[in-house]
Amino acid sequence: MSSIRNSRTRLLTAAATVAIAALSLTACNDGSGVKDEGPSASSSSSPSAQESQDAQDGGGESGGDKNGTDGKPAHNTAKPTASPQQPKPAATATKPAGSGSGSGTDVERIVCDGSNTKTTAAPVNRPVNHMLLTVTNTSGKRCDLYSYPAVRLGEAQSVPPVVEESQPQAVVSLEPGQSGYAAVALSATDGSGSNGYTAKTLVVSFAGPKGLADYDGPAARPALPAKGVYVDDSIKVTYWQTSMDSALTW
Question: Can you give the pTM of this predicted structure?
């Protein structure tokens, strides 16, 4: 009797299983079945755009204001990036305006005379009966040798004339330490001169920009040889020159 019930139970269970399977198959075939679409959009845990911006601004919880959890404005604790230090502009070196020689700037010019030069007088072998005057600038400024030297040998009452052909094209200017030259033809080489005498002293006066008459600066008194020099009335001088050769040409 009990075996008959068990058989019926198994049959009923099997029939129920077949019926459920048939219903499931039918539902799938007509497109009404339920598909698993995954978690719904409403259950997403991704933060909203506003929450992300709040987080970047240092705010508190999502949906709240931009303050920290203690109610005070949040501070950005990140250290600002240091800007590279710019080099300071180089100081421009400046030079004081000067009056150095050869600089192309205006230079104070003075007249060469006995106070700012050294003058020497020396007889030469060639040309015969000639003496060379050398004037060296001993000052710290440029000086100008104007015209020609006014020489007085011994007790002479006048200065000798100049050789006009010896006039240079420009005034002889001497930088400190430079020298200018003039020659003195003391006597005639053929003996044609007259009123000759031996001079043991020499005075050299200097001309100014307008000539000998307008300048009365200190004269020079160079030494002569101990025996003196012979002079006659044919004596002549040259203009100041820039070289010995030029001075001794006449």
Answer: 0.58
User: Please, what sign has the CA dihedral across residues 190, 134, 158, 248?
Assistant: positive
Instruction: Extract the tokens encoding 25.
Output: 């198959």
Per-domain boundaries in the chain: 109-247
Q: Of all helices (H) and strands (E), which one includes residue 122?
A: strand 117-124
Structure tokens at 181: 């030259």
E strand or H helix at 236: strand 236-237
How far is residue 246's CA from residue 167's CA, in Å, rounded to a whole number? 10
DSSP 43-82: G--PPPHHHHHHHHTT--STTS-SB-TTSSBP---SPPPP
pLDDT at 30 > cutoff 70: no
Return d(Cα 184, Cα 134) in angstroms, integer.
11
Q: For residues 31 and 244, what is the distance between their CA atoms, to the nearest angstrom?
A: 131
d(CA 48, CA 55): 11
**CA distances from residue 5 to 8, 43, 223, 246 in whole angstroms, order as listed:** 5, 50, 171, 162
Give residue-wise pLDDT tens across range 196-220. 999 999 999 999 999 988 899 999 9
3-state secondary structure of 116: coil
Q: What is the pLDDT of residue 213?
A: 86
